Amino acid sequence: MLKSTIGTLISLLLIAAGSRLIYYLWEKIFIKISHKTPFKLDTRILEETRRPAFYFLIIFGFYLVLQRYFSLPALSQSHLAKFILGIFYSLTVLVITYLSFSFFQALAKWYLEEVAHRTKTTLDEEFIPLLTRLLRIVLFFIAITIILSHFKVNITGFIATAGVASLAVAFAAQETLANFISGFTIMVDRPFRVGDRIQLPSGEIGDVYEIGLRTTKILSFDHNLIIVPNSEMTKSKILNYSYPTARFKIRMNLGVAYGSDMEKVKKIIYDILQKHKDVLDNPPPQVFFTNFGDSSLDLLIIYWIEDYRERLRIMDEINMSIDRRFAEEGITIPFPQRDIHIIPPPEEE
After folding, report:
1. Which of 14, 146, 298, 330 has its CA 20 to 30 A from that of 251?
2. What is the pLDDT of residue 1?
């Protein structure tokens, strides 16, 4: 018995020393060698799994030695031996789970650093962190289930209880869950992306600042952050100015005084639009004489620009040019007016 105890202690010391030596070699040699290879995946995996691999070597090594030691006839029925073996079995399962998750996390980080930015969409950059968190929950749930099975705990009841609890939570947090599902839908369907300029049903316009799992954040022109639940975003009609291109059509109504030479008016407007460097030639600008108004002859002016962000500047320059040319040519832009005729009362006889 004494000989077995001494041998067990020596084995434990050797496992601890060997694990430490492997950890040192892992850090000082293996990782340094991986930095010299053309691939970055091996470096990322070695860096992420270094610490969990060290824990695994020690804990699993201790578990095997103690399992052999406690199998001796004098100790095999001891409650303390069973308790210690149970603890090390649980730690072994947890550290294997930790090692597995670290490996998948290394793959995810490598993909985000080396591959995701080369793709045309940001879906993978937004989805992979969510998938990583979900994988961590699933792996550790499986680990807890294995540990409970080892201790002869009825996991059927545990799983049923978890299912009922999940259902209760789902009912209590159905709005939050709806926002999470809507957030996932937005990431997959991509009706708008970060940086896109959109208009909400309320009429508010802003640039998409962040698309989260629960809410979408929009930065308004006043530099205020508008936070909208994702479930509202998926149910509403959203106007996206940025997709599929940043091109923008400008429509402008203009009225001139009755008696104006409409051919001349249209020619002046066409000349201004065609000379402006930011007005597109294709599709060409258009000017239509649309209506005989109460106080004016009405026109509809349509032209396209390359980028919606320049809309206000270009409209200002076009309007200033029209105002200047009309003043030079004697063309009047009227204001609403009414002629009032006062009829005197009939004279008394």
Report:
1. 330
2. 59
